[in-house]
Design goal:
With 296 residues, the chain is α+β, with helices and mostly antiparallel strands. It is 39% helix and 28% strand. It folds into two domains: 81 residues; 159 residues, Rod shape-determining protein MreC, domain 2 (Thrombin, subunit H, Beta Barrel). Strands 1-2-5-4-3-12 form a six-stranded antiparallel beta barrel. The N and C termini lie far apart (177 Å).
């Protein structure tokens, strides 16, 4: 049987069939590979990443994530902390500049107000045809036993003892002690002060003296008091009191204050009346010293 030519032919057919199948498979695989290659060449955008590139990308992904996270964190740190610090410094600088500008404006406003008050007081002096020397109050003690104020003008500026002193609104007092560069004012509220005055409405004459009594209408204001006012004098609350000029110390017609309260004296011969000065003696900042008296 082994030498039977029939069996040999069958083997050859089987081998040819097997070889045919293998060849067909190889050709089919080759066709597929060629198709893929041609497709890749025709459409390069759809080229698939090579396997070694995929490995490198996979290996580098974690470090890249760390670097990206660190970069974003540093950016956030700059934007939220360092930038805020710079903004805070800039705001602080602007705030200081605004405070400085506001301080300068306040100082300019104070100077303007001071000049206005001094100009008004000088105008009052000129209205009485008197020469005046402007001065600033550098110390005051209107509530003490001796009610005085100190000004920054003295003998070298032409200030002399007993010169009348006015403020913005009316009479303040007269010059007491004088040094070369300063002078002390005896205020009209001091018990040692006395001024010959008129009641403007009726012409009633009296003596204005200082007193230690406080003002009920205006707390912390010092009062003066009318004495030797005749019992028959027509005087009521609200009347204006002015200087008479008869004492040869104060020019005539300077406003002094208003009458607050009128009452009879124990003797029954005279009346007494409290006078609230026009000038707040505890708050005055500028005064004018009248350098001459002209009663004409």
């Amino acid at each position: 049987m082994m030498g039977d030519p029939r069996f040999r032919g069958d083997d050859i057919r089987l081998m040819l069939s097997f070889f045919y199948k293998i060849t067909r498979g190889v050709l089919l695989a080759a066709c597929v590979i060629l198709a893929v290659v041609f497709t890749s060449l025709a459409f390069p955008n759809y080229e698939r990443t090579h396997w070694y590139k995929q490995i490198v990308a996979t290996a580098l992904a974690p470090p890249q994530k760390v670097i990206t996270y660190f970069g974003r964190s540093m950016s956030d740190l700059w934007n939220h902390y360092i930038a805020l610090t710079q903004a805070a410094k800039e705001n602080d600088r602007i705030s200081k500049e605004l405070k400085s500008a506001n301080m300068q404006l306040l100082q300019m406003d104070d100077v303007a107000k001071e000049n206005l008050r001094l100009r008004e007081t000088l105008n009052m002096a000129q209205s009485f045809k008197l020469d005046g020397i402007g001065a600033s109050v550098i110390a005051a003690n209107p509530m003490g036993e001796y009610k005085t104020a100190t000004i920054d003008r003295g003998f070298k500026n032409g200030i002399r003892k007993n010169m009348a002193v006015i403020g913005a609104g009316g009479l303040v007092g007269r010059v007491g002690q004088v040094s070369n560069g300063q002078a002390t004012i005896l205020l009209i509220s001091d018990p040692n002060s006395s001024v010959d005055v008129f009641v403007q409405r009726t012409g009633a004459r009296a003596l204005l003296v200082g007193t230690t009594v406080g003002a009920d209408v205006r707390p912390f204001w010092s009062l003066s008091r009318l004495e030797y006012l005749r019992h028959t004098s027509d005087v009521v609350e609200g009347d204006v009191v002015t200087t008479s000029g008869l004492d040869q110390l104060f020019p005539r017609g300077i406003p002094v204050g208003t009458i607050q309260k009128v009452e009879g004296s124990p003797s029954g011969i005279f009346k007494n009346a409290d006078v609230v000065p026009f000038v707040d003696l505890s708050q005055m900042k500028e005064v004018v010293v009248l350098s001459q008296i002209d009663q004409k």
